[in-house]
Design brief:
With about 90 residues, this protein is of the alpha+beta class. It has one domain. Helices cover about 45% and strands about 15% of the residues. It has three helices and three strands; from the N terminus they run ααβββα. A three-stranded antiparallel β-sheet has the order 1-2-3. A hairpin with a 2-residue loop joins strand 2 and strand 3. Helix 1 packs antiparallel against helix 3.
């Protein structure tokens, strides 16, 4: 599991927002739920965004990565996941 600072988690969330349409961190719910779950060591966070209900950030096996339900996969969602995962590698 990757452990990051609050500032780094905010950078991770910025990637989710930019690449996968996650809610704006300025919305208090999104910020508090995401930061609280990550700082306590949650291994999955469902952010949905443009990936649908299955859109989630996984913190497992020493890396961070984005995925969605395979039945919801489209070429556009696959491109968003690929872009997000490429950017998330800097935190692994």
């Amino acid at each position: 599991m990757i452990k990051l600072t609050e500032t780094e988690w905010k950078q991770v969330y910025g990637i989710l927002k930019e690449e996968c349409g996650a809610r704006d961190l300025d919305e208090s719910w999104a910020c508090s739920e995401f930061l609280h779950s990550q700082l306590r060591g949650t291994t999955e966070f469902r952010f949905c965004g443009t990936l649908g209900f299955g859109g989630k950030l996984c913190n497992s096996g020493g890396r961070l990565y984005v995925s969605c339900y395979s039945e919801d996969d489209t070429p556009e969602r696959e491109a968003a996941i690929k872009a997000a995962n490429a950017r998330l590698k800097e935190f692994s």
